[in-house]
Specification:
alpha/beta, 247 residues, 40% helix, 2 domains, globular
């Protein structure tokens, strides 16, 4: 097997007295989509923040393309952040900026492009998520599903190699959930990115992913394909599946 593009090695993270992650290890291959499952409060979103460098672990390594980013200073993290796009839970758009300026934000942060080039990139990224001609609209004018898609356009604005999705379908109706799932799969195919999806939604996970990993009590209980996940006799996996079926 090839060297993973991302290696999470024995990572632990606590907030005050709450131990959220406790020795998590996971390898993520270039070009795959992996979904990290788990209930609320299991540390899924924390793991994304560690990968993006927004948080640092108490122990362990986060290796991106053979470089451990944990010891790096803020300015040293910039080249790695250029490789990563993130769709935040709730989209996290800037309310005071237009849709187009929201998408342009990371471009302006990382590059010194002309205004004409920035506008061209913004149009192209919005087109990829099915939102042509909305550059002048404000976030307040958008539906929940449209906000998610603008957030996704912003996540891919700098042509990242890795996209992190934090609960991408939370709060969406079934039609918009399906649309976002289709976009995740389509962008992975078109852009050849590595995708890490955090969710508690099994159906969405099955729709987009190559492999699944279940976080339970601060550790990875299983990593495998959908078939391996469903066939697993690990009690934590059976409990998670049964709870989702009942729900």
């Amino acid at each position: 097997m090839k060297t993973p593009i991302i290696e999470i090695k024995s990572v632990s993270k606590a907030f005050e007295r709450q131990q959220v992650l406790n020795g998590v290890s996971l390898g993520i291959q270039k070009g795959e989509t992996i979904t990290i499952l788990g209930g609320s409060g299991t540390g899924k979103s924390v793991l994304l923040k560690l990968i993006s460098g927004l948080e640092k672990p108490d122990r362990g390594q986060i290796v991106i393309e053979t470089r451990d980013i944990v010891p790096l200073r803020e300015n040293e993290l910039i080249p790695f952040r250029r490789k990563i796009g993130m769709l935040f839970q709730g989209a996290a758009l800037f309310d005071s900026l237009s849709t187009g300026e929201n998408v342009a934000y990371p471009i302006r942060e990382h590059f010194r492009f002309s205004e004409e080039k920035i506008r061209k990139i913004v149009r192209e990224k919005l087109r990829l998520v099915g939102l042509e001609g909305v550059e002048e609209k404000m976030p307040a004018e958008l539906s929940g599903g449209m906000k998610k898609r603008v957030g996704l356009a912003r996540a891919i604005a700098i042509d990242p190699e890795i996209i992190l999705y934090d609960e991408p379908t939370t709060g969406l109706d079934p039609a918009n959930t399906e649309r976002i799932n289709q976009l995740i799969a389509e962008l992975q195919r078109i852009l050849h990115v590595t995708s890490i999806v955090v969710t508690h939604d099994l159906e969405s996970a099955y729709a987009v992913t190559d492999r699944l990993a279940l976080l339970h009590k601060g550790r990875i209980a299983i990593v495998g394909t959908q078939k391996e996940f469903l066939a697993s006799q690990i009690q934590e996996v059976r409990d998670f599946i049964e709870k989702k079926i009942i729900a």
